[in-house]
Amino acid sequence: ANWKTAKEYEDITYKKCNGVARIAFNRPNVRNAFRPKTTSELYDAFYDAHEDVNIGVVLLSAEGPSTKDGVYSFCSGGDQSARGHQGYVGDDGYHRLNILEVQRLIRFMPKAVIAVVPGWAVGGGHSLHVVCDLTLASKEHAIFKQTDADVTSFDGGYGSAYLAKMVGQKKAREIFFLGRNYSAQEAFEMGMVNAVVPHDKLEATAYEWAQEILAKSPISIKMLKFAMNLTDDGMVGQQVFAGEATRLAYMTDEAKEGRDAFLQKRKPNFPKKWIP
Ligand code: 1HA
């Protein structure tokens, strides 16, 4: 793949190639922990991928390994050294939990998002892989771990409750209550990883999976994602799904008549067909 840098950032890299966007954590020496700068850069890049009509699949990956010890990581969650009393403190001095906004962008992205996990996926980093549509993990180096209950920073949303829908209640409670390490293979067997991939083939495999998805009907992928989100997302899930129903309704003669009648200041004369 011939990746081209889409935008320069400090804490992440952002590249594009043939319909695929690749957003990657780039703080490998702290296991790709995120600070407020990281999350606002993630938000910016995900929003760009959301808006770009030439992008159909987004990879959330990570640069590495650490130059200190050669260890690979996906993301180790919130940067504990940036944690204040009410959240994570940014350059502006305000305390935020804005990784949750990034989670929502991933969740409501009208395209597939694939987590590409080369190493540690821990705490809020684990929750990010949970919220992505698919997860590919390095056979040799990926380790999944939930430390939220070690550091009193718990994700009571998608990170835990949605995880439980994915791996079952007993396993999800084990993951959070014991905080053990799980290999890519164990995570695969639990149902939270789609494929275990040899480390040196991980990025290429992610790109191949993306290309397979890109060959499908874009509307179908979007509607299927939103349909599968719907039951877990309550009224917001309904809103997102229904927005697409409205868009499809716009394309009918009926909708054109409704708009035209308003603009022409006359009563609408809808086609009198009640198609079952
Ligand atoms: O759950 C949430 C949220 C929920 C709701 C709303 C907002 C949320 C926001 C955030 C989060 C969270 O992410 S809570 C969970 C926060 N993360 C952690 O508790 C994980 C902390 N890290 C570790 O447990 C370990 O580092 C590790 C299992 C990922 C890797 O262990 P390893 O290979 O033994 O490496 P280690 O020596 O511990 O770390 C390497 C370097 O990276 C260390 O720095 P150094 O001594 O070389 O200077 C270490 O301090 C740094 N580092 C690793 N993780 C973090 C970190 N620095 C800051 N924050 C980190 N998360």
Commentary on this structure:
Helix content is 43%, strand content 19%. Helix 2 packs parallel to helix 3 and helix 9 runs antiparallel to helix 10. The radius of gyration is 21 Å and the shape is globular. It has 276 residues and is of the alpha/beta class. It has 11 helices and 13 strands. The longest helix has 17 residues. Helix 1 links the parallel strand 3 and strand 4. The strands form 3 sheets. The protein has a 7-stranded mixed sheet with strand order 1-2-3-4-8-10-13, sandwiched between helices. The structure holds 1-hydroxy-2-naphthoyl-CoA. The site of 1-hydroxy-2-naphthoyl-CoA (1HA) has 26 residues, from helix 2, strand 9 and helix 4.
Summarize the structure.
It contains eleven helices and 13 strands.
